[in-house]
What does this fold into?
Amino acid sequence: MYELIRAGERSWYIDCPAKIGICLLDGADVCLIDSGNDRDAGKRALRTLEGEGWRLRAVVNTHSHADHIGGNRFLQERTGCRVFAPRIEGAFTRDPLLEPSFLYGGCPPAELRNKFLLAQPSDVSTFGDPAFPRELEPVPLPGHSFDMTGFRTPDGTVFLADCVSSGAVLAKYRIPFIYDFDAWFRTLDAVEAMESPCFVPSHAPAGPDIRPLVAENRRAVTELLDTILARLDSPASFEELLMRLYDGFGLRLDFNQYVLAGGTLRSALSCLAGAGRVRAAFDGNRLLWRAAED
It folds into this structure.
C-alpha cells in the first residue's frame, strides 16, 4: 500500500485505496492528481514526493468525493500548494458539508458526518486560473459525479478517476454510485474510444487496454437497470424498492450505503423515466414507481 508506481515517462501513481496520480512538470516540480482519502494519505503522499526530491506545486482534483480530496487541506497547509477543481466539484471541495447534504437531501445526521463523506475544506481555484498546470490536458468524464474530470499527461498517460470500477468492487457493492446515468454511459463510450499507453482508474488496476473493464462496467450497470425494472413487478415507493434490491442482493444497508445506493437508485429512476420505461404517481400521499405498460 502507498507504493510508488511508474506509469509513463513523466507520470506515476501512488497505489492506495483511491490512487493518487503524479505528473512531473518542470525541474523538480510535480502536480498531484487527487490527494487521497484523509490527512494521513496526504502525509504519505508528501513523504513519497520528498523521498524522490520532488516539490509539490499543485493538486488537481478529479471530483469532490472525500476519498479524492481528503489530503488537500494538509498539503495546502504544509506546502502552500494550489488546488484546482472543475466547476461544481470546486464548490463541494471548498464547502464539503455540501456532499453529505446533497446525498441525504437535507441537513445530514451525525452518522453521515464522517471522513468517508465529509472531507476537510480547502481553497480551490478553477482550471481557467493562469496557475493551472498547463502540462495537463483535462478530460471530461461526467456521470459518476457532476463535473468529474480526468487528465492526460504529456506522456499520454490518462488518469480516469472513478468512471470505471474494478470487477471486485462491482461484485461487492452491486450498486455503484452514479449521479447521471445518461452522462455515465456517454463517458464510457468516449473512454472506450481513447488510446493511451497507460490508463489509471482510481479503483481498478492500471494498464494499456481499458476496453474490457469498460465493457464489464457497462454490462453491470445495464443489468442493474434491468434488475430495478424486474423489482417493479408491483408498484413500490423508493424505500420499498431499495429494500427489494438489497434483499435480492443479499446485502445490508448502513447509513453510508443508504445515501450512496439510494442516490444511484433515484438517478436510475430518473434515467428510466426519461426513457419511458417507468412512471411515477402519487397514491395516498406516497410517491409510487411502477414499470411502464407496453
